[in-house]
Design brief:
By secondary structure, the protein is of the alpha+beta class. It contains 6 helices and 11 strands.
């Protein structure tokens, strides 16, 4: 013990020691010791293990006597030798378990002991007793489990009708919980479906609006050559499609312009070939007007240079609308 206190300051030490006023045999003893530095003392206390176990057993039995559960639930205990330490009825404590019989004179005490001898896993037995204060029979169930370290057997018992009532009550409670959970689930499910439906509806309206814009656009694009307004759609995908559609319209307009320009050129050549009696001024004005139409210019003129490029001769000065404009401008 001195070594324990010196090394750790406190500790537990087990050893053998004779009991006073008892035979000369040594008994297991456990001591608790620690140092008390102000006085430089070692202070300790010890108890024999069998005395400690007896005290613990006495405390356990005292607590078990006070344990009750439900209306008629109780706890009993008997030794491995079959002597009741705590009985369901206090007056029967100390009797042999094998002498216990139920209301039908069935020796259920023997069944208790036989169940205890099967091992530490325990088991159930059923018997019949008279309900307290009456001669009414009531079925009772007991759970038996051995505790080998003390050679004790613990028994808990409850009336079957009370147990069935408890089971029914708990089943009803759990059923209510299930109904409540199902109701909450259905409510949340319907709420989710409603929200999803509303969101889907509004998105479908936006998509329908985008499709309608494209439908109207393609209906009018061929005739009026209008362009798609990308600001009218609310989805990037539709905006991208609108960009491609506008590019298609631009290409179509450009191709139509080229075709129209070719037609004007051909018509110009054919018309000039028939203007045999027209003056040079008339031919120049006609040619300039067609050039303005092809190039889509606002105004223009036709001038000729001599071979050495020293003299410029202006032949025509026209606006796009066909009116002449003074060459001084």
């Amino acid at each position: 013990m001195i070594d324990i206190v010196s090394e750790r300051g406190a500790g537990i030490y087990r050893y053998l020691w004779p009991k006073p006023e008892v035979d000369g045999r040594n008994y297991p003893k456990v001591s608790i010791v620690r140092s008390f530095e102000p006085f430089n003392w070692f202070i300790g206390t010890g108890i024999y293990e069998d005395d400690m176990q007896a005290q613990v057993k006495e405390d356990v039995l005292g607590r078990l006597k006070k344990i009750h559960f439900g209306k008629n639930g109780s706890v009993a205990c008997f030794s491995a030798e079959g002597v009741t330490l705590i009985d369901f009825e206090e007056m029967r404590s100390g009797r042999k378990v094998s002498t216990l019989v139920d209301a039908h004179d069935t020796p259920f005490g023997r069944q208790l002991r036989a169940m205890a001898q099967r091992g530490v896993n325990g088991g159930f037995i059923e018997y019949v007793r008279h309900r307290s204060g009456t001669t009414e029979d009531v079925a009772r169930m007991s759970y038996v489990k051995a505790y080998p370290p003390w050679n004790w057997v613990f028994v808990t018992s409850i009336d079957m009708d009370e147990m069935e009532e408890t089971i029914q009550r708990e089943s009803s409670r759990h059923l209510k919980i299930v109904y409540r959970e199902v109701a909450v689930f259905l409510f949340l499910f319907l709420l989710t479906i409603t929200v999803v439906g509303i969101v889907t509806y509004f998105h479908s309206l936006k998509i329908k609006h985008g499709i309608s814009l494209f439908t109207d656009f393609f209906k009018d694009a061929a005739d009026r050559k209008i362009k798609f307004d990308e600001d009218d759609v609310q989805y990037a995908e539709f905006a991208a499609l609108g960009e491609f559609a506008n590019r298609m319209v631009d290409e179509k307009i450009e191709k139509e312009h080229l075709i129209q320009a070719d037609k004007i050129r051909l018509d110009t050549l054919l018309r000039i070939s028939t203007m045999t009696e027209a003056s040079q001024k008339e031919i120049s004005d006609f040619t300039l007007a067609r050039m303005l139409e092809i190039t889509r210019s606002e105004r223009g003129y036709i001038a000729f240079l001599n071979n050495d490029r020293s003299i410029v001769s202006y032949q025509s000065f026209l606006e796009r609308n066909g009116e002449a404009w003074p060459k001084t401008q």
